[in-house]
Write a structure and sequence with these properties.
Blueprint: H1 3-24, H2 31-35, H3 46-66, H4 70-89, H5 93-117, H6 122-146, H7 153-176, H8 188-209, H9 215-244
Length: 255
């Protein structure tokens, strides 16, 4: 077993062990996530979401004690996102995967810290949303460069980035018009999880099955792109329906 595969297997084993501990302790849902109606995989894997928030919650508590602000994590997340794109561009997939995972953790911590400190604001929501797009742009730009010799690389990168932007844009426009739509299969949390895992597992999987490096990541990019477009279409029809028939809206949140 290669060193990278051994490290990945060890970390996955530790995470699964922590998941078992969380389940045995009663798997209490995260109150902050519930207040935002946060979902993972369309609500089918919310257990995973609440478990992961339980895992990172000590980091949020420590950050508050150290006086780290939401802005600190906003820009730390951006730095990790850029590092992920650069690592990917130069073929350092494990580095890219860990950097993207840390960027995702920062994205979670910035909002939790802002709400815990009572400083959540429109400024924070704007910075968070815009920097998230910069992070995904940096990653897929690095991915396009990494796959530059593949005839599929540019198309997969464009589809994945385009699908990601369409999902976020549909939600942003809907919210600006008074319709909250957070549902769908391929939201940002799902994208970051898949991209991180694909980067970390690509070389070990390629070595085991004799594949070309980047094959797993390419497949994941195609999947993210396709499901992202489907999610964007779902949100478009949902929001359009609410706006066309506001009297029948009732609950304005997509499930």
């Amino acid at each position: 077993m290669s060193t990278s595969l051994a490290v990945l297997v060890s970390i996955v084993a530790a995470l699964l062990l922590s998941m078992a501990v969380y389940a045995l302790r009663g798997h209490r849902p995260d109150a902050d996530a519930q207040s935002k109606d946060a979902q993972f995989a369309g609500g089918s894997a919310n257990f995973v979401l609440h478990w992961f928030l339980w895992v990172v919650n000590p980091a949020a508590t420590l950050s508050l004690r150290l006086g780290l602000t939401a802005d600190f994590y906003n820009f730390a997340g951006l730095a990790f996102g850029i590092a992920s794109g650069l690592g990917l561009a130069f073929g350092q997939l494990e580095l890219a995967g860990w950097a993207m995972a840390l960027s995702g953790v920062c994205d979670i911590l910035d909002g939790r810290i802002a709400r815990a400190m009572g400083v959540a604001s429109r400024y924070g929501a704007f910075i968070d949303a815009v920097l998230d797009r910069f992070i995904e742009f940096a990653f897929f730009l690095g991915f396009a460069f990494f796959m530059r010799l593949s005839p599929q690389g540019a198309v997969a990168a464009t589809l994945a980035l385009g699908g990601s932007v369409l999902v976020s844009y549909a939600r942003a426009v809907g919210e600006s018009l008074g319709v909250n739509c957070t549902g769908g299969l391929m939201q940002r949390g799902e994208r970051l999880t898949l991209l991180s895992l694909a980067c970390l597992a690509d070389h070990p999987i390629a070595g085991l099955f004799g594949l070309t490096p980047g094959t797993l990541l390419l497949g994941v990019a195609w999947f993210i792109g396709a499901t992202g477009v489907i999610t964007a279409i779902h949100r478009t029809f949902f929001i359009a329906g609410k706006l066309r028939h506001p009297a029948a809206a009732g609950d304005e949140t997509a499930r």
